[in-house]
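quick one, 385 residues, struct below
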Amino acid sequence: MSASAADEGVTVENNQPRGPAWVGVDLAALRHNVRRMLSVGPLGTKLLAVVKADAYGHGAVPVSRAALEAGAWGLAVARMREGVTLREADITAPVLVLGYTPIRELSIALAHDLAITVSGMQTALALSALGTATGRDARLHLKVDTGMHRYGIEPEGAVEFAARLAALPGVRLEGVYTHYATADEKDSPVYAQQAARFEEVVRALGLRGLRPPLVHAANSAAAISSREPHWDAFRAGIALYGVQPSHGRALSLRPVMSLKAEVGQVLDVQEGEGVSYGQRYRAATRMAVAVVTCGYADGYMRSLGGTGEVLLGGRRCRVLGSVCMDSLVVGLPGDLDIAVGAEAVLLGTQGAEQVSAEELSGRAGTIAYELLCAMGRRPDRRFNG
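---
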């Protein structure tokens, strides 16, 4: 197979340069996944679509709109700035900030009608002062630390803390929630212990007349567990993007993200010659290879060198040697004729073959969450559905 080089120019679509690597986002699949998750709980249970980290790398604004169209009640983010981005896109649905919000940013959150997670009285007092000064109640969700030991009030003090919140002017306690550490593990005693602790807090809040309108605990994995008590709402993240969250019941989720790139060059490597940085791979015999225009700067992890498989012509082709910043090299079967410009699938489906997020993250030695979130900003996002 003779060497050939990629064209120097760029493809232009709608007068915009189009790069040789791109991320596909299937919004129809996302809507399907939202509807599937809504089917796991009692009728009327609210779903908070978790769209933090730019919707796990998929694009927060288009994903949020699609999730709401499919029946999600509200949205959840990790940072205040992520919530502001949604508001600036004219998304008016309820938005909860799950993570830490610095006191200096609380006025911005209030101005954009973002619900804030409270794990300490300092934040609550600051929000009370802001709400009183502006005449607009700040919306709060009290987080209870039932065992994750990350954020939250200890269960023993949660009811009294809620009573203090209820007495503050300028704030409204809208919700109470917790987060599970091991919901994705089968028969986890830690999960059972956390669920019991939270249930006791909710019961005690009810006895004191302090139970807020929204009680939520389940993430994707817990939501599909038969052991999980279904409260007023639940938070779904990874399942919305088509990744089975646990060993619980299968939900026929559809993958939302794909990663594709063009072949930039096809060439021959002679017996004994090395490939890529460090020459970690050497050809045992004369072979054809293809240079795929996607590297770790595009989100294809460097740890996939020598372990990842890319789909070309509906066939699996092993990544040879090191993944570079902007490209990688794959070996071609002798009977596979590939030309420059051919489409390579690094994540997704081609013909009868599929490289799933679960498979790719396993080969990379990580989890699907990290793989999706690490998808680079350089590749175009192409939304369909």
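Residues 276 and 321 are 6 Å apart (CA to CA).
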